[in-house]
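User: Please fill in residues for this 230-position structure.
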């Protein structure tokens, strides 16, 4: 299987001197296509910091990071000139709050994500409808986000994250606003997508109810991460 994410000794330090806070202390993470991994830990453990570093949103302090086999960070600096290109071409993001645009219909929310990366309008709509059908919310395509259930909105957010064909999905607490049954369905769906579309998925969570759906579990506490459990 092809490598999607590789980090070695990844650190993130905020402040300096008496105000220094080590948010991430030498994280080693590996993810291959088709794998679904969880980063588990309590609030403040460094989970979201790690996710934001992998997503190119926060710059690490030191360490090594590759995304899709591309040397992204090493030697104390970014090795890629255009982080927006990296995120646009190789990553999809799913957030706890969905972040759907309330005044756009469901199909418009997904289509706009494809158009932003250069897909022609007709192709973007076709691709979006295919994903909404795959995720069993195509019948809601012309509705607005406020009319959907929490689980349906999360499915739309997943479609939006996938529409441009990324190799990596980064999910921040994707089940936190869902009950156990709907949360389990979301994790099962992410697992199905990973296996069928050769996408790597990393989900940050503190929700121990969902751990059976992951191939590997990384546990974090006070910025320290373990080597990952299979």
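Assistant: Residues filled in for all 230 positions:
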């Amino acid at each position: 299987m092809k490598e999607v994410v590789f980090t070695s000794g990844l650190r993130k330090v905020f402040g300096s001197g008496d105000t220094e806070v080590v948010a991430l202390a030498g994280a080693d993470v590996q993810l291959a296509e088709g794998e679904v991994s969880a980063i588990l830990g309590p609030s403040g453990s460094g989970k979201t910091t790690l996710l934001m570093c992998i997503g190119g949103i926060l710059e690490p302090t030191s360490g090594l990071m590759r995304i899709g086999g591309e040397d992204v960070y090493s030697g104390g600096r970014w090795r890629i000139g255009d982080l927006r290109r990296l995120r646009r071409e190789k990553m999809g993001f799913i957030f706890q709050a969905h972040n759907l645009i309330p005044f756009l219909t469901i199909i418009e929310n997904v289509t706009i994500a494809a158009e932003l990366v250069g897909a022609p309008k007709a192709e973007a709509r076709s691709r979006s409808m295919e994903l909404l059908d795959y995720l069993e919310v195509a019948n809601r395509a012309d509705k607005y986000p406020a009319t959907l259930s929490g689980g349906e909105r999360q499915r739309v957010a997943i479609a939006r994250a996938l529409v441009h064909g990324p190799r990596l999905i980064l999910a921040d607490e994707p089940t936190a606003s869902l009950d156990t049954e709907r949360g389990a369905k979301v994790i099962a769906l992410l697992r199905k997508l990973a296996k069928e579309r050769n996408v790597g998925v990393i989900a940050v969570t503190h929700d121990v109810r969902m751990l059976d759906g992951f191939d590997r579990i990384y546990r974090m506490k006070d910025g320290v991460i373990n080597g990952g459990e299979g």
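For context: The first helix runs from residue 47 to 54.
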